[in-house]
């Protein structure tokens, strides 16, 4: 007696699908076409984050470009295959993602599958190489989400030409991003570094000249001090000088013993200075002075000028010999 086993025609045969599984190198090519253009754009615009507050427009441009790149990348990876069954890269090489029973995976499963690729990466990238020896050519993400990558018929559209246009566009955007990074960010940072070096060197000397004066050359010294101030601060400085004249001027000599840059941009800076000095000319009347001041500088043309001077620690005087 012979028994005949009859398999129903609609029963899925998982080990012998109608569409062969895709080779590993084919999957790599598709993944590269899908991901690398967006990654290139994001990587070349990332330096824009280094732009200072005065280049806020660059930061917002980075936000817009990054948002567009993420939207395009997400739409290609998750939305298109859930509607048309392919991404740009998969259409180019002729593959598609399906469930084990051959059904389309849907938007949610595609999203979870890409998130599950973190397992492939976390395992020292072994998961990405797993298709090389797995019988069904699956990554760890495929094993978790029960998906497979199979060969499929390419769309009727000329995908090579369309893909070439997308890649060229990504290269152009990346090249422009690199150029803007140099012009707007790198050169800006270079200018800030130069400003810091200038203020560190010139700032203490400017304050010394502004605060120092001699009774015999008082008018010239006050005129010189006014030339070291901005138009905004000059009236306040002149009022202080008039008070000195009114109550009787005495020779003052200051020098900076320590300084620190608190803030610097291309056209503005702030410094903290520890000052020492002496008042008077006769030995028996000589007094030593110590004070701490905060000074705000503005760039006027090619020169730095004092825009505000605030005494943080009132001058302490000590007579000579004490």
From TrEMBL:
The chain crosses the membrane at residues 28-50, 57-80, 115-133, 166-186. Keywords: Cell membrane, Membrane, Transmembrane, Transmembrane helix. Residues 21-144 form the RDD domain. It is a multi-pass membrane protein. One of its GO terms (cellular component) is plasma membrane. It holds the Pfam family RDD. The keyword Transport does not apply. It is found in: Cell membrane. Its main location: membrane. It comes from the Bacteria. InterPro entries: Pra-immunoreactive, RDD. This is RDD family protein. It comes from Mycolicibacterium poriferae. The lineage of its organism: Bacteria, Bacillati, Actinomycetota, Actinomycetes, Mycobacteriales.
């Amino acid at each position: 007696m012979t028994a005949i086993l009859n398999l129903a025609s609609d029963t899925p045969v998982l080990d012998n699908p109608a569409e062969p599984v895709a080779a590993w190198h084919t999957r790599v090519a598709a993944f590269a076409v899908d991901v690398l253009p967006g990654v290139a754009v994001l990587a070349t615009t990332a330096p824009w984050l280094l732009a200072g507050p005065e280049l806020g427009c660059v930061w917002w441009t980075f936000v817009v470009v990054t948002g567009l790149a993420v939207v395009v990348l997400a739409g290609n990876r998750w939305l298109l295959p859930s509607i048309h069954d392919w991404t740009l890269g998969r259409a180019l090489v002729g593959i598609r993602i399906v469930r084990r029973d051959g059904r389309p995976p849907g938007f949610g499963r595609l999203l979870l599958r890409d998130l599950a690729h973190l397992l492939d990466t976390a395992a020292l990238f072994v998961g990405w190489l797993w298709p090389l020896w797995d019988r069904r050519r699956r990554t760890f993400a495929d094993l978790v989400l029960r998906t497979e990558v199979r060969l499929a018929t390419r769309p009727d559209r000329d995908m090579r030409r369309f893909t070439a246009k997308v890649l060229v566009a990504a290269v152009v955007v990346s090249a422009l991003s690199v150029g803007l990074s140099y012009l707007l960010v790198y050169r800006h940072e270079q200018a800030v570094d130069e400003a810091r070096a200038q203020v560190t060197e010139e700032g203490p000397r400017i304050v010394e000249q502004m605060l120092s004066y001699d009774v015999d050359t008082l008018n010239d010294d006050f005129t010189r001090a006014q030339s070291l101030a901005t138009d905004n601060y000059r009236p306040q400085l002149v009022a202080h000088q008039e008070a000195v004249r009114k109550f009787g001027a005495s020779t003052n000599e200051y020098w900076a013993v320590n300084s620190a840059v608190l803030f610097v941009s291309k056209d503005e800076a702030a410094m903290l200075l520890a000052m020492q000095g002496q008042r008077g000319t006769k030995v028996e009347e000589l007094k030593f002075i110590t004070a701490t001041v905060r000074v705000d500088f503005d760039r006027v043309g090619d020169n730095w000028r004092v825009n505000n001077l605030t005494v943080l620690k009132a001058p302490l005087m000590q007579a000579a010999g004490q």
